[in-house]
Amino acid sequence: MTHWWTAFRPKTLSAAVVPVVVGTALVPTFGGEILWWVTGLALFAALMIQLATNLFNDVIDFKKGADTEARLGPTRVTQSGMISEKGVFWAAIGFLLLAFLAGIPLVLHGGWPIVAIGLVSLFLAYAYTGGPFPLAYLGLGEIFVVLFFGLIAVGGVFYLHTLSFHPAAAVAGLQVGFLATALLVINNIRDREQDLKAHKKTLAVRFGLRFSRVELLLIYLLSFGLGAYWFMQGLWLMAFLPLVVWPLVRQVIHQVFFTQPGAHYNELLGKAAAIHVLFGVQLVFALVVSGFLQWP
Questions:
Q1: Is residue 296 one of the residues assigned to a domain?
Q2: Is residue 19 part of a domain?
Q3: Mean pLDDT, residues 68-94
Q4: Backbone conformation region of residue 40, classed left if phi is above 0, alpha if psi is from -120 to 50, else beta
Q5: What's the predicted TM-score (pTM) here?
Q6: What is the distance between the alpha carbons of residues 275 and 48, in angstroms, rounded to a whole number?
Q7: CB 171 within 8 A of CB 226
């Protein structure tokens, strides 16, 4: 079971959980009543898709030569021989099937927008690293993460509750999406040399370390800078509470700018995951407190 836990990449699972929780927390303030069955199914489906994506990535990166004995990142179960290629691949298919089944009630409730989101999400779980046009190998990984672990995830959960859209869901989606993307950028900086040999054309490979370092800085500045929207909406707690995480952000940025990529970047990934989770927690807490303050 330990091998499977390694394959699941638990540090990445916040990318699936945070958007669903934030999208749910927005509902009472911006449009309706929380439907806990919707949140539960959406969370389950998001986790299943994330697990499938991780497992497909494990198999495909090994087959394409992106994961070798020289990799600096955490252990990959296919490359290390912990689990067979076939076992990992079929486990990924199984998780996609579970996500599909969980999505059926959501589709019946939300209609065609949820059909579109669900089908594309299921397809891209594989196409992120597999198929003729793998996003991760074309330098499109950042766009994928911002969209599907940010805008679409938060907006989709909000829509399932309210059957409507709201700019607040887009802003929150961008914020958590950018923070999830930071993990990918750090990962790509660490793996740049290996990815270059495997012809995995991430942005770090295409444009170099200086570009990716500046990219990471801009991602964090944009995420926190969007707090200005909440301030203009009179939700000052949502604007300022997430700033308690900024000292940790400064640590990550400083280490990325002033240390060379290496195995120590795995610690930075843990810090970036913590930033993502803590930022989401602060947003949710601010929404809950703001809701209490608005009660008569």
A1: no
A2: yes
A3: 80
A4: alpha
A5: 0.92
A6: 23
A7: yes
